[in-house]
Specification:
heterodimer, A: Rossmann fold, Rossmann fold, 2 domains, 5-stranded mixed β-sheet, 38% helix, B: 285 residues, alpha/beta
């Protein structure tokens, strides 16, 4: 098992803020919009240096999406930011008509996704956003795994023409990917090559998958771990290549098991190569209040759960 | 263009509208007929449009020109006809309205790359927000072009409209003129009965807009005067709202003033009766 170490823990939303700071200096067309959550989205450095390219929208997310769509007419690259719940479910029709169907170059950047938002509870913990966004034709859906990758993804999507949903989170987690990485949209990242089971993980679950890989190794199981940071377009080639080798699959995501990464992978398997698949995901329920660690344990989203799922998958081969 | 010429264009646009809706036996003639005079006045007289050899040249960014957005996308027939008659695309294409493989979808879209359309609309309440974004884009680009956006009065019942109404004065978007088509009708009946908007002028004023009224929204001279006045008030830190009083179905006597023709197509006899009231001035498509 390839060794992954870290010297610090950081939140992925700060990676977004750092990416925006850099974009503000590099790309004069980048405009940031926010619906009264500037601090949570870590936008202060961007706003300080580019006050004329920041648009405060107040608590009016629907209008923010429409204004973003309009800004693209004239060549601006709007980054519309708020919590993932308010960036997707609340404004689904606005995204559908004014952004996706109209093919506007809007970047919807969503923080506090999933259970790890924590104590605020289920009203704010969206677990359906990946599903909603990936169903929109033409939408690119990205869920990076740590601070460095989120920063790199933020910078990369500015150069990608078309609508993007970028999802990140609130808790501090290990920073284990390279600071100087180049983010390639739609290209899965091989975390560890293995032969016994393919673990496809996204977002915060990638670090859990690495820990699971180490535990499995101690038990003599050689897990292949792949970071699917781009849910759509899915790197089908990487999925199939891995499955050819391992013959069974675990998918891990901080999302409802319905409509997320697991279902995207399952579609590839059903069409191309039938192998056993086990889901590590929220089992079609809402979340609740608690610390991120407590919630991930209660809802079955830890390294331990991935280990158990891997064993089940191997047994079903 | 002289008023008489503009009225001739409007008569042809009205013929196009009823013929398009009749041909596919669906679509929205009422609001389209009511807003014909405004769209003709804008596209044939008041808007600054990028042109080459007397024909408009369309590109998505619309740099240096005025832009128009239709928020109440169901009145697409009047927009399609006006764009075609202005030279954005061949008038023959009007015959494809709402038919399979057409660029003239039931509601306007960018998906089929129809010249003149910059955003999809139809799901109501979104156009003002989009127009505000386009207006701010122009400001960031130091582009002097003006943004025009038309909404329905029934559409004012959508919550997003009021998010946008708060946003515009706060950000001093003063390169934008918004219209509300006050025809007093929506699908289920008169607007005052379905969901009374009460005094929209006072509401927008309270939100910080400058509000003017065009009482005769189907009179070309009154529209031109109103547009001139609206434009003269731009650039002073406030967005402009024009309350445009129109008659739904204007120009066809049996369609006028009733919500019944909001989204109903005429049959063969009704088409003949309607065309008998509208002079063919530029040649039918």
């Amino acid at each position: 098992m390839k060794k992954y170490t870290f010297t610090e823990k950081k939140d992925t939303r700060s990676g977004f803020g750092a990416g925006m700071h850099e974009l503000g200096q590099q790309n004069p067309n980048v405009v940031a919009l926010c619906a009264d959550l500037v601090g949570s989205l870590k936008l202060e450095p961007f706003i300080k240096e580019n006050p004329d390219r920041f648009i405060q929208c107040g608590i009016s997310e629907a209008n923010m999406i429409g204004v973003s769509a309009g800004l693209t007419i004239g060549g601006k690259i709007p980054f519309a930011t708020t919590f993932a719940n308010f960036a997707t479910g609340r404004v689904y029709d606005q995204i559908r008509q004014s952004v996706a169907y109209s093919n506007k170059n809007v970047k919807i950047c969503a923080s506090h996704a999933g259970l790890t938002l924590g104590e605020d509870g289920a009203t704010h913990q969206i677990l359906e956003d990946l599903g909603m966004m990936k169903m929109l034709p033409g939408m690119t859906v990205i869920n990076p795994c740590d601070y460095n990758q989120t920063k790199a993804a933020t910078i990369a999507i500015a150069d990608h023409e078309g609508p993007v949903y970028l999802r990140f989170g609130r808790p501090v987690i290990p920073v284990f990917t390279a600071a100087d990485q180049k983010f390639e949209i739609g290209k899965a990242w091989m975390v560890n090559e293995g032969t016994d089971v393919s673990i496809f993980a996204t977002g915060h679950m990638v670090w859990e998958a690495i820990q699971a890989g180490e535990q499995l190794e101690a038990e003599g199981i050689n897990a292949e771990i792949i970071n699917i940071h781009t849910i759509k377009p899915l790197d089908e080639e990487a999925v199939l290549k891995s499955v050819e080798k391992t013959g069974c699959v675990v998918t891990a995501e901080e999302h409802n098991r319905i409509g997320g990464l697991g279902d995207s992978i399952a579609q590839v398997l059903v069409k191309n190569k039938l192998v056993p698949q086990e889901y590590v995901a929220v089992n079609d329920s809402f979340g609740e209040s608690g610390t991120p660690t407590q919630l991930m344990e209660k809802y079955g989203l830890t390294a331990k759960d991935i280990v158990a799922a891997a064993k089940r998958a191997i047994e079903r081969k | 263009m002289e008023i008489e010429q503009l009225e001739k264009v409007a008569s042809q646009v009205r013929r196009d509208i009823v013929r398009m809706v009749h041909s596919c036996q669906s679509g929205h003639p009422g609001g389209s007929l009511g807003c014909t005079d405004l769209l003709v006045a804008l596209y044939f007289e008041r808007m600054m449009l990028n042109e080459q050899d007397g024909k408009p040249v369309f590109d998505m960014n619309g740099t240096g020109e005025d832009l128009f957005f239709l928020s109440n996308g169901h009145i697409s027939p009047v927009w399609y006809s006006t764009l075609a008659r202005r030279g954005y695309f061949p008038v023959e294409e009007l015959a494809t309205f709402r038919k399979l493989d057409s660029r003239l979808q039931g509601h306007p879209t960018t998906h089929e790359h129809l010249e003149g359309i910059r955003i999809a609309s139809g799901s109501l309440g979104q156009g003002l927000s989009v127009a505000l974004g386009a207006a701010m884009s122009k400001k960031l680009n130091k582009d002097k072009g003006i943004i025009y956006v038309l909404m329905g009065d029934g559409e004012q019942q959508e919550g997003q409209v009021w998010e946008a109404a708060s946003f515009a004065p706060h950000h001093e978007v003063d390169n934008l003129i918004a219209f509300i088509d006050l025809n007093g009708q929506q699908i289920d009946g008169p607007t005052v009965k379905v969901m009374n908007n009460r005094d929209l002028g006072k509401k927008y004023e309270a939100f910080g807009w400058e509000v003017i009224s065009i009482e005769e929204g189907n009179d070309m001279a009154a529209i031109l005067k109103g547009l001139y006045e609206a434009k003269s008030r731009l650039g002073h830190g406030r967005p402009i709202l024009v309350l445009l009083h129109t008659g739904m179905g204007f120009g066809v006597d049996f369609m006028m003033g009733s919500h019944k023709w909001h989204g109903v197509a005429p049959n063969d006899e009704q088409l003949a009766a309607a065309l008998g009231q509208l002079e063919e001035t530029l040649g039918d498509y």
